[in-house]
Design goal:
Layout: E1 4-7, H1 13-24, H2 34-42, E2 52-57, E3 60-73, E4 78-89, H3 98-112, E5 117-121, E6 133-134, E7 140-141, E8 151-155, E9 166-169
Helix pairs in contact: 1-2
Length: 177
C-alpha cells in the first residue's frame, strides 16, 4: 500500500468524519467522539490547516491525522508545541502502515513549519517506534489523570524540549462534547 499523503481539503471533511468514527468505533479506550473533536478543532485557534492530513488510495480517503497547537506552561514561561490527536485509519486499511505514513508525514510537515515537538496521549506500544517517550522524561505533565506510560512526547528536532517543562495546555475543544 502506497497512499498519497496530502493536506486535507474542505471536500474531505465528510469522509474524514466517517473514517474517524469507524476507526474508533470498537476501541474500548475511546469515548467514541473523536470525529466530533476533529470538527471542533478545525474551527479553533489551535488548528493548523497544513497539519490536517489525509491518506488517499485510488482517490478514496482511507486515513487522517491532525496535529494542533498547544502550550507547555510553567510558572515562569510558556512554549508552543503540538499535540497529535487523533490519527485514524479506516478499519479495512488498518495494519498496512498507513497510520505510520501519516505520522511520519505530519512530523515532517511540522518540522518544515518550525515546530520542535509533539505530545500525545496514546498507546505505549505503538508510538515509541516514532521516537515518542514518556512525557515525564522531559518534565512535561498533563492536568488530568492518565497513566504515565500513555502520556508521551517526541522531539522533532534535536533538543526540541531544551528548556521546556511544565503542564500541557490543550485547546478547550478537547474538553467539550
Amino acid at each position: 500500500m502506497n497512499p498519497i499523503i496530502r493536506q486535507e481539503k474542505f471536500d474531505d471533511h465528510k469522509a474524514v468524519f466517517t473514517i474517524t468514527e469507524l476507526a474508533f468505533r470498537n476501541l474500548e479506550i475511546s469515548e467514541h467522539n473523536e470525529q466530533f473533536l476533529v470538527d471542533r478543532l478545525r474551527k479553533s485557534s489551535a488548528f493548523i490547516p497544513e497539519l490536517s492530513m489525509v491518506a488517499e488510495i485510488e482517490g478514496k480517503i482511507v486515513g487522517h491525522i491532525l496535529l494542533t497547537k498547544i502550550l507547555i506552561k510553567n510558572e515562569k514561561s510558556e512554549h508552543e508545541s503540538l499535540t497529535l490527536a487523533p490519527v485514524s485509519v479506516h478499519p479495512d486499511f488498518q495494519k498496512m502502515g498507513i497510520g505510520a505514513k501519516l505520522i511520519q508525514a505530519a512530523h515532517q510537515k511540522a518540522r518544515e513549519l518550525g515546530y520542535k515537538s509533539v505530545v500525545l496521549i496514546g498507546h505505549p506500544h505503538y508510538y515509541p517506534r516514532f521516537g515518542y517517550r514518556k512525557a515525564s522524561d522531559f518534565g512535561i505533565k498533563f492536568h488530568f489523570d492518565a497513566p504515565d506510560e500513555v502520556c508521551m512526547a517526541v522531539e522533532l528536532v534535536p533538543k526540541g524540549f531544551n528548556g521546556v517543562n511544565g503542564f500541557v495546555e490543550l485547546a478547550k475543544e478537547f474538553f467539550e462534547n
